[in-house]
Write a structure and sequence with these properties.
The chain has 491 residues and is an alpha/beta fold. The chain has 17 helices and 19 strands. The radius of gyration is 25 Å and the shape is elongated. It starts with 11 loop residues before the first helix and ends in a 5-residue tail after the last helix.
Length: 491
């Protein structure tokens, strides 16, 4: 049985009623910037549970107080005293993580409220995502929490994280605990964005906030988008949704947030089969795909198509300037990728740049055939003695051309790494006065070498994508966002 109230649109009267009944929003500082955290659950060592949460908070460098809570025989965990109930904690905790049986959640919420804890991350599952009885328990928890002024993330959530203060209360052991600090916040209706499911250390960019909404019995994507809208540490937002409770509010919030920061949204469940999977996943009804597409067009939201894009596309907006227009230049070792780039570019409103006469003449003097886009350097490589200086001249000439708004660069990582030095020097030169965006695809016969080159370029602040088409899509999304901002409207 699916709980009611998860359709993307209601009529105006119903939306007004929802707004009137919705509890006043608390300050979300207590969720992402708590000075103390209560961890309620089992502290048996393993790969999931309270023990893992305490370990993760300690290893991540959280400086606030941590209060393990369990009414059983635990005396301490990882050197911290265990308290029998929230009421025994010596201070009012700002936040509680609850990992207990679903049938006992209501009573724990009541004891938390009595202890002054009004913000709860409800990790526990067994609610609306499971069956009719779970939906009934979830309704009971929601009504109780509202009556007590308690706000809830979840249930059925893998939790939250804030890289800025070491808040990583991940209930699953990810094997790593600290994040590189950055400007990208990722929110989702699945725990697949949390540390145990994704190698954030391999992203090449830093993280600000992470939040899994879970079943969204109380707080939802609109609440968190509003929080991130004014979060100084968040400059780029990536979101995954399966359902939206209040379509009117979602549209209004997205329009406002997207006007300030790049907002990318992935919405799956477009097919009947996907919609059914969504219902069993979080107990919600999927959004009609055509309606969602319309919402994106109206609000300036940049729609993503694949789950991996949630993590890949933010790297562009976190590191590159926005393009002035839709003309992309290209330097490559192969003409075939150039054809693929042009096809993909057409899908995103991009066109091949026409180099100015001066640039074209200079490149032709370097080697016949270089004076047009794509600038195919493959044929000239065997005859070049000082590849580093030549390569840097080509890159800077193309990106500095007045007719070029962005650069798509294709790099061949040779098996012995002979050209790596030239690539690094070329990108160091680009970085000195970066006014236009650069995206890169690296290919070659040795996966270790391609990864090495990619890592070196990303360490310089340049996004490297796994496929050439994604390079072009990143430029296309950036062009759409930039042109919308320049025109004072969304596209």
């Amino acid at each position: 049985m699916i709980p009611r109230g998860h359709l993307i649109y209601r009529n105006a009267e119903e939306n007004d009623q929802v707004t009137q009944n919705k509890p006043k929003k608390n300050d979300f500082t207590s969720f992402f910037e708590p000075e103390s955290v209560a961890v309620i659950g089992s502290f048996k060592e393993g790969v999931f549970g309270g023990y893992v949460v305490v370990k993760s908070l300690l290893e991540a460098g959280f400086k606030g107080n941590i209060y393990p809570v369990n009414p059983g025989n635990y005396k301490e965990v990882l050197g911290l005293k265990v308290y029998p109930s929230p009421g025994h904690i010596p201070e009012k905790a700002d936040l509680a993580l609850v990992m207990i049986n679903a049938r006992n959640v209501a009573s724990v919420i009541k004891t938390c409220a009595e202890a002054g804890i009004k913000s709860i991350v409800l990790v526990a599952d067994g609610f609306a995502e499971r069956d009719a009885e779970g939906a009934r328990l979830q309704d009971e928890v929601v009504h109780l929490a509202k009556s007590l002024g308690v706000r809830i993330i979840g249930p059925n959530t893998a939790g939250i994280a804030n890289a800025m203060n070491g808040l990583n209360p991940c209930p699953y052991d990810a094997g790593y605990y600290r994040f590189k600090k950055g400007t990208v916040s990722i929110c989702s209706q699945t725990g697949m964005i949390n540390p145990q499911a994704y190698a954030y250390g391999d992203l090449g960019y830093g993280i600000s906030k992470i939040c899994d909404f879970g079943n969204k019995c109380d707080l939802d994507e609109c609440d968190f988008l509003e929080y991130l809208e004014n979060d100084a540490d968040t400059e780029v937002i990536s979101v995954y949704v399966e359902s939206v409770k209040n379509g009117k509010r979602f549209l209004e919030v997205c329009r406002r947030v997207a006007a300030k920061k790049p907002l990318m949204v992935l919405k799956l469940g477009a097919t009947k089969e996907g919609a059914r999977a969504s219902a069993s996943h979080t107990g919600s009804l999927a959004i009609d795909d055509e309606i969602f597409d319309s919402v994106c067009r109206q609000t300036g939201v940049l729609r993503l198509d694949k789950f991996t894009e949630m993590f890949e596309m933010p790297r562009f907006f976190a590191s590159q300037p926005l393009p002035r227009g839709n003309r992309f230049g290209m330097v490559s070792y192969t003409g075939a990728v150039g054809v693929a780039a042009l096809d993909e570019g057409a899908r995103h409103g991009l066109v091949r740049a026409q180099l100015s006469n001066d640039t074209s003449r200079m490149l032709e003097n370097m080697f016949p055939g270089l004076g047009h886009v794509p600038v195919d350097i493959g044929p000239m490589i065997p005859s070049v003695k000082d590849f580093s200086s030549v390569y840097t001249k080509i890159l800077t000439a193309v990106i500095d051309d007045e007719n070029v708004d962005s650069l798509f660069n294709v790099i061949w990582a040779d098996a012995k790494g002979n050209n790596t030095k030239a690539y690094v020097e070329g990108y160091e030169a680009l970085k000195e006065n970066l006014r236009k965006p650069v995206v890169t695809w690296v290919y070659g016969p040795n996966i270790t070498m391609t990864r090495d080159v990619a890592a070196r370029l990303e360490s310089l602040g340049f996004p490297v994508f796994a496929e050439p088409e994604r390079c072009i899509k990143a430029l296309g999304l950036a062009y759409r966002y930039a042109s919308g901002k320049q025109n004072g409207a969304v596209l």
